[in-house]
């Protein structure tokens, strides 16, 4: 979905992620995820942090983690994450709806980027980590092609066979006719074949 101002809409990706949360039971928090060395609890802590950081970036507020995001920790995961994360996702969607969010420069985790790129980075985080969470908890993941197309354009420029430290693992080549989600995952170092 694209807004009238030409910017991507975060709502479909946020909705897909929110749909997974009721299926994440406490006994799954220690389960492995496709993110190397992160269990589900760490992934959720990362999602809590990134939804706040990228909302602040849209609002051009001060970078909440100027020295980098730090390693996510299941021990730091907000005990109210089930109620807080959907609210933070809604706030993130709303923040990137304004055309001002996509102008100028903004910072997340000590990295300054043009806002129009930062917004797509944020969308990519939602899409890829949504898939991570779905895979780790054995749930289906449904994301629209327009969102995937936006993210694919970003990751196809940034991915490399060596990986991008802090962003992506080494890319996994997918056939040109593979589904768009598979190609996005491959470029971020993930495979649809992953199992816990």
Q: Please state how the strands of the largest beta sheet are arranged side by side.
A: 1-2
Which regions have little confidence, pLDDT < 50, spanning 5+ residues? none
Give me the count of strands.
Answer: 2
Determine and state the CATH class.
Answer: Mainly Alpha
Number of helices: 6
Mass-distribution shape: globular
pLDDT averaged residue by residue: 91
Structurally, the number of domains stands at: 1
Secondary-structure-based class equals mainly alpha
Biggest sheet: strands, sense, closure?
2 strands, antiparallel
Intertermini distance: 32 Å
CATH homology superfamily name: dinb family like domain
- The arrangement of helices and strands along the chain is HHHEEHHH
Might you state the CATH topology name? Four Helix Bundle (Hemerythrin (Met), subunit A)
Beta-strand percentage?
under 5%
Q: Can you walk through the features of this model?
A:
By secondary structure, this protein is mainly α. The chain has a single domain, classed as dinb family like domain (Four Helix Bundle (Hemerythrin (Met), subunit A)). It is 45% helix and 4% strand. The chain contains six helices and two strands. The chain has helices at residues 11-20, 40-58, 81-95, 115-136, 145-158, 180-187, and strands at residues 105-108, 111-114. The protein has a two-stranded antiparallel ribbon. Helix 1 (11-20) runs antiparallel to helix 3, helix 2 (40-58) packs parallel to helix 3 and helix 2 (40-58) runs antiparallel to helix 4 (115-136). The radius of gyration is 16 Å and the shape is globular. 38% of the residues are buried. The model has no long low-confidence stretch (mean pLDDT 91).
């Amino acid at each position: 979905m694209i807004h009238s101002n030409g910017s991507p809409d975060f709502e479909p990706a946020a909705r897909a992620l929110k749909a997974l949360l009721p299926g994440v039971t406490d006994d799954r928090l220690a389960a492995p995820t496709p993110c190397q060395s992160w269990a589900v609890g760490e992934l959720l802590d990362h999602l809590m942090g990134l939804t706040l950081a990228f909302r602040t970036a849209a609002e051009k507020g001060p970078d909440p983690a100027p020295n980098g995001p730090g390693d996510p920790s299941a021990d730091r995961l907000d005990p109210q994450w089930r109620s807080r994360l959907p609210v933070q996702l809604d706030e993130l969607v709303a923040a990137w709806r304004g055309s001002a969010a996509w102008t100028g420069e903004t910072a997340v985790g000590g990295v300054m980027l043009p806002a129009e790129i930062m917004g797509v980075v944020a969308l990519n985080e939602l899409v890829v980590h949504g898939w991570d969470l779905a895979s780790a908890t054995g749930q289906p993941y449904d994301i629209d092609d327009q969102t995937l197309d936006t993210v694919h354009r970003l990751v196809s420029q940034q991915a490399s066979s060596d990986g991008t430290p802090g962003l992506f693992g080494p890319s996994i080549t997918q056939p040109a006719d593979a589904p768009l989600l598979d190609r996005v995952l491959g470029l971020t170092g993930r495979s649809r074949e992953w199992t816990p």
